[in-house]
Design brief:
single chain, alpha/beta, 40% helix
Length: 347
C-alpha cells in the first residue's frame, strides 16, 4: 500500500516497504516524466542521423505504417517493406533518448495489455510470484517494454530469456534498451553483440537499432554534481518539507539500509517525496554497496526527485577502480543522473 506522506521531514532509513506481486504488476508503466512521451516530442539531433532513423523504424514497429509519399502530384503509399521482427533492441549511450523512444512505442501501440518496466522490475516480479505465475500473468500481452536490460547476472539473464521466449511464441512484441558509454573509443560498440550472445535463444527475434549521440542531460550543465554546505542543505530541506515531504539521511546509514531492502522496493522508499537529502556523502569502495546505490539512483531519477547533498560530490561517489571495472556503464549512467538531479535541486 502507498505510504501517505503529506509534508515534513522523513528518514528513508526508517522505512521498510513491502510490495506485493499484484502491486508490482500494476506499476509496470512508464516513469512519470514519460507519461506524455511521443515520437513527435522526441527531439532528434541532426548531427546523429541514427536518432531520426531509429524513431522512424520504431514508428513502424508500433504500427504507424508506411507514410504516404507525394509523386507526380498524386499521393501513393510507399513501397511495402518487409515486416519487422517481434523484438527491437535499442543500443546506444545513456542520455540519447532511448527511454523516451521506448515510452513512445508503449503509448503509440494500440493495445489492450502492455507493460513497461526496468529489467530489475521484471526479475523482481518473477522472484515475488514465481516463474510460472509470472508467465501466466504476462501471457497474451501485446507489448513488453524492458528498459535497461542487464547482462551482469547470468541467472537473471537466463530467466528473462526464457520468459521472453514464451511470451513471443504467444504473440507478444518486445522492445528493450541498454546502455553503452557515448563516443567512447574501444568500448560501447559491442553491446548489441553482447546482448544477442547472452540471449542467444532469442537473438533471431530481435532487430538491433543503434542510436548515436551525446548525453542530453549534460548539454545544459557543467558536468559536475552540485555540493551543498550544511547551511544550504538545511535550507533546502526546510523549504521542501514546508510544502511536501523531504528525506534527510546520513549517506553511510542509507547505504547500510539499502542492503536490508530488496531493490524492487526502492521505489517505495521514496514514495511521496519531493526532495532527497543526503548528508556526508563518501566515495564507495564496496561493489555491492555501489550497485545498490545505482539501483536507488535509478528509482530517484524515474521519480524526477531533486537531490541535495553534502560531502564529496556525487559524480565522484564511485572510485576510479570501480569506473575501470566491469560495471563501468552502470556507474557512468548513475553519475549522469546524479549530476542532473543535484542541478535540479539547485535551480
Amino acid at each position: 500500500m502507498t505510504q501517505q506522506i503529506s509534508t515534513g521531514v522523513v528518514h528513508l532509513t526508517e522505512r521498510t516497504p513491502v510490495v506485493t506481486g499484484t502491486e508490482m504488476l500494476a506499476s509496470l508503466v512508464p516513469p512519470p516524466q514519460f507519461d506524455d512521451a511521443t515520437f513527435e516530442s522526441y527531439r532528434s539531433d541532426d548531427r546523429y542521423p541514427s536518432q531520426e532513423a531509429t524513431k522512424q523504424l520504431l514508428q513502424r514497429f508500433a504500427g504507424g505504417g508506411a507514410a504516404p509519399v507525394k509523386k507526380a502530384g498524386l499521393f501513393r503509399r510507399a513501397p511495402k517493406e518487409a515486416p519487422m521482427k517481434p523484438g527491437v533492441y535499442l543500443d546506444g549511450g545513456f542520455g540519447v533518448g532511448k527511454t523516451h523512444l521506448l515510452a513512445s512505442v508503449y503509448h503509440a501501440l494500440p493495445a489492450r495489455r502492455k507493460y513497461f518496466g526496468s529489467f530489475i522490475e521484471y526479475t523482481a516480479l518473477v522472484g515475488a510470484l514465481g516463474y510460472k505465475n509470472t508467465v501466466d500473468l504476462l501471457r497474451g500481452a501485446d507489448l513488453l517494454c524492458i528498459d535497461e536490460f542487464e547482462l551482469d547476472d547470468p541467472g537473471d539473464t537466463m530467466v528473462m530469456t526464457r520468459l521472453l521466449g514464451e511470451l513471443v511464441s504467444s504473440g507478444t512484441k518486445l522492445a528493450a534498451t541498454s546502455n553503452t558509454p557515448p563516443n567512447a573509443l574501444g568500448e560501447g560498440r559491442f553491446a548489441a553483440q553482447d546482448f544477442l550472445r547472452e540471449i542467444h535463444a532469442m537473438s533471431e527475434s530481435f532487430e538491433t537499432l543503434r542510436i548515436d549521440g551525446v548525453d542530453y542531460r549534460q548539454r545544459a550543465i557543467d558536468g559536475s554534481a552540485v555540493v551543498s554546505d550544511d547551511a544550504r542543505f538545511a535550507k533546502a530541506i526546510e523549504a521542501a518539507a514546508s510544502s511536501g515531504a523531504a528525506s534527510d539521511d546520513e549517506f553511510p546509514a542509507l547505504i547500510h539500509h539499502l542492503a536490508q531492502v530488496h531493490p524492487s522496493r526502492y521505489i517505495r522508499l521514496i514514495d511521496g517525496l519531493s526532495l532527497v537529502g543526503l548528508r556526508d556523502v563518501r566515495t564507495l569502495t564496496d561493489q555491492s554497496e555501489a550497485l545498490r546505490f545505482v539501483a536507488f539512483v535509478d528509482r530517484v531519477y524515474d521519480a524526477q526527485l531533486p537531490i541535495v547533498a553534502t560531502g564529496v560530490a556525487l559524480d565522484t561517489v564511485f572510485g576510479d577502480e570501480m569506473l575501470a571495472g566491469g560495471y563501468r556503464k552502470k556507474y557512468l549512467r548513475a553519475i549522469s543522473r546524479l549530476n542532473a538531479l543535484t542541478h535540479s535541486a539547485a535551480e
